[in-house]
Amino acid sequence: MLRPISFVFFLFNLLSLITITTSTPPYIADENITVNCGTSVNSKAGDLREWVGDIGSKFAPTEDLNHKSNASRAQIQGSAEYVPYMTARLSYFQFTYVFQVTPGQKFVRLYFYPASYSDFDRSKGFFTVKAGSFTLLRNFSASILADSLKKQTFVKEFCINVEKNQKLNLTFIPFSSNYYAFINGIEIVSMPTDLYYRPQGFKGEVPLYVGQASHQFYINYNMALEMVYRLNVGGGLISSVEDTGTFREWSTDRDYMLTGGFLPRNLSFIPNYSKIQNYTAPDDVYRSAMSMGPNISKNMVSNLTWGLPIDTGFNYLVRLHFCEIEPLIKFDGERVFIIYIDYQVAEERADVISWTDSNDTPYFKDYVVMIQKKGEDNHTLSIDLHPRTDGTLRDAILNGVEVFKLSNTDGNLAGPSMVPPLLDQQQPANKSSTKKTIFIAIGSGVGFLVVLTLVCSMVLWKSKKNKRFGSYHPQPKWRCWPYPYKQKLTRTKASSLPEVRCRYFTLDELKTATNNFNEELIIGVGGFGNVYKGVIEQGNMTVAIKRLQPESQQGAQEFRTEIEMLSQLRHVHLVSLIGYCNYESEMILVYEYMTNGTLRHHLYDTDNDPLTWKQRLQICIGAARGLHYLHTSTKHPIIHRDVKTTNILLDEKWVSKVSDFGLSKMGLDNIAVSTLVKGTLGYLDPDYARRQQLTEKSDVYSFGVVMFEVLCARKVLNQRLQEEQRNLASWAKKCIERGTISQIIDPYLTDKMAPECFKVYVELAESCVRDQGVQRPTMNDVMEKLEFALELQENANITKDVNVMEKLEFALEFKENADMTKDINSEEVSLIHATSTSSAPWYNNVYNGQVLESTSGTELTTINSGLSYPGQS
Ligand SMILES: *[C@@H]1O[C@H](CO)[C@@H](O)[C@H](O)[C@H]1NC(C)=O
Ligand SMILES: *[C@@H]1O[C@H](CO)[C@@H](O)[C@H](O)[C@H]1NC(C)=O
Ligand SMILES: *[C@@H]1O[C@H](CO)[C@@H](O)[C@H](O)[C@H]1NC(C)=O
Ligand SMILES: *[C@@H]1O[C@H](CO)[C@@H](O)[C@H](O)[C@H]1NC(C)=O
Ligand SMILES: *[C@@H]1O[C@H](CO)[C@@H](O)[C@H](O)[C@H]1NC(C)=O
């Protein structure tokens, strides 16, 4: 007797067996290799295919005899209990799978489950995968990718053409001897010749090169493709067994659809493959679609938009699938629309019926679009459909999207390198700190409420945000924030990108960037070494490259840990660390380039135009914010220790940013030091010098000195002056006491400062340089007082050189925040969906702008809070 549960299971198996065996797919792959890596056992996977264990089989990888790879089971149980994720092949050395396959185009699918395997730490899987001359993945971390996808396992799919007498070699190369490469499963499936490749001489339509005036783009056999998106628009997930015979998986588009849409119909009609091959896509792709809906006036002022995050620096093949599924639309000229890809017109006049002659007839269109590298690695590919006024319906439709990355001329498909995880990474003591916070918070009722409110609003904000932006960033960000995500679709805040890491540069890359550390490119010199101006990203991005002198060296390990920590600090008023290089004795830091140099070089002994008083105030406010962030954003305050006008840099918009934070702690700075006390003379906190106890208030002292330097435009220590006047801080203090401070200010500022503003400023600066730390304000107080001073100045309205741009820049930060909330709250995405099997009567009334109940009684719903699809909550 079968127990009920196993009976059901049995039935289920039988059913799936029946569905699979009874429907012959339109295409039968002559090559269908599935290799289960790291095991000797053959097993059936969920798709009923037999996965061959590589151990002892003809698929066993070739490797150096001295460096055998390991086979191992995943240590985390219950999460990947299915083939081929249960086992993996792992090695600290290169290994190669060699497949003898028939010539032709193949799908190559790589299955990864980044878990901890015995002796193989999850985070240390870091490697490159090559297929013959193609680089499929480079300096790649499966765990970083999985984490950013919020998935335990994932598959990477590639298309490769194998020439006659060629073998298909897949080589796995660890990043270095401290990192390993691994793979759980490999799948090789042949595909119809005309599925995606469009070589020269192809009989049929060849993709149009978008933006290149009706040029065609050939997908030649010497190219490899990487599948980036394959979406069943308006429909649900289609699993690999439900595909047309090549085991492609189709996902839903709902995470990528940016505007509301309307599901015109969802019927189980039999598509009529009179125009394209029946293996192009599963029937279900054509049975579901998205359109704009009945409101013509609304349609004419909006787009049907999908946003797909991709890497820059590649050509992409974009395949759009169409099928007119509305039975009432039968003639040319009814549903006519424009297709934009990446904000460029790809199709001036899309009219599905004119392509197919009838409805229920699938069709597809291919476009290739070049996504240039413009200093950033991430880009959101936008697909916009907009109804044309000459169509009667004023609507658009889309049934499916496929996006492939095309290999470069050098056979590369890999995106930006990820940063290798640190060896023996120190675990941040997050857990205990959380506990502590909660404990303290509970201890004081008010605090608890505050924390609760904060947590709640964060959760709310996040969930709201997720509705619109949610999995809108499924691709990991390897780059440091803030990268200028300028695209209109992407609005990101640092906090929403916890996975952000800093980039690792090779020494060669940096040599190229600086013309082999050419002396002419030196923009700064100091005790730590030289700073070079360099260009990366094929000359598209300027950076500052700080090459530390070997003498200032410390343990490479410590260096990396420190850099890793510093790269986590992201603030608009901190100079961003873009990446680093740590190769043999070299330690190099790569920072964002600050066009306007140091604050010091705009104050005195310079040919630069003097800064206006308001500019100076804004620069001080920015620097104060940056320091405040350092003091408060991490568990232990980060004390800069070397606040001075040469460490406050100005970007092209005169936004001030604090640089060199964290370095003094590492002994990597340009500091004239007494044996124990570090700091720059003139800025050095006397209290710290005396007691040798460092606190945030030491930075406050130095900041006070900076404020006087900004006000007086003179050196903080000038040995040429009389004894009394040499040290700016003590001289300013004396002048304040004597009431003569206005006599020592920068002559340029005379008459340009509002008296109230001046007063607040001077009082604040004076309080910063008080003798004892406890008497000084916090950076937060400083920030607020400075903002107040600026307000006074603006109200007084005596500045003759009001610069509108300045005001704009300054307000930008606040505005951005405001915009963000506004977007989420105000933009209600409405989607009307009909689950009725017959929405035709409804659609019939579209032209009158009326909404009728559907006849079958199933609801026509309007959802205002986000996208929802029938049958998928
Ligand atoms: C697909 O089309 C081919 C002819 O192009 C035909 O022989 C085959 O039966 C069709 N398969 C299915 C499942 O419709
Ligand atoms: C693939 O590997 C085999 C065995 O290692 C080697 O003989 C062959 O040259 C390789 N082919 C290519 C295209 O790399
Ligand atoms: C159609 O859209 C416009 C503009 O968005 C809106 O003002 C109008 O109320 C809508 N009409 C209907 C019937 O929903
Ligand atoms: C639709 O998208 C195109 C291309 O991105 C853009 O130029 C156009 O302004 C958009 N139209 C509307 C109404 O949003
Ligand atoms: C991976 O990164 C290392 C160090 O940055 C570099 O030496 C190597 O060339 C990179 N690998 C590839 C395939 O680019």
Automatic annotation (TrEMBL):
| Residues annotated as signal peptide | 1-23
Which residues does the annotation say bind ATP? K546
Which positions, given as ranges, span the membrane? 438-461
**GO CC terms, sorted:** membrane
Q: Which InterPro entries match?
A: ANXUR1/2-like (IPR045272), Kinase-like_dom_sf (IPR011009), Malectin-like_Carb-bd_dom (IPR024788), Prot_kinase_dom (IPR000719), Protein_kinase_ATP_BS (IPR017441), Ser-Thr/Tyr_kinase_cat_dom (IPR001245), Ser/Thr_kinase_AS (IPR008271)
Domain Protein kinase residue range list = 517-789
By its UniProt entry, which SMART domains does this protein fall under? S_TKc (SM00220)
PROSITE patterns annotated for this entry?
PROTEIN_KINASE_ATP, PROTEIN_KINASE_DOM, PROTEIN_KINASE_ST
Subcellular locations according to the entry: Membrane
Keywords linked to the UniProt accession: ATP-binding, Glycoprotein, Kinase, Membrane, Nucleotide-binding, Serine/threonine-protein kinase, Signal, Transferase, Transmembrane, Transmembrane helix
Output the Gene Ontology terms for molecular function: ATP binding; protein serine/threonine kinase activity; transmembrane receptor protein tyrosine kinase activity
Q: How does it sit in the membrane?
A: Single-pass type I membrane protein
The chain's coiled-coil residues are: none
Q: Which GO terms describe its biological process?
A: response to metal ion
- One Pfam assignment: Malectin_like
What Gene3D superfamilies does the database record attribute to this sequence? Galactose-binding lectin, Phosphorylase Kinase, domain 1, Transferase(Phosphotransferase) domain 1
The principal location of this protein is: membrane
Q: Specify the protein name.
A: Protein kinase domain-containing protein
| Organism expressing this protein natively | Fagus sylvatica (Beechnut)
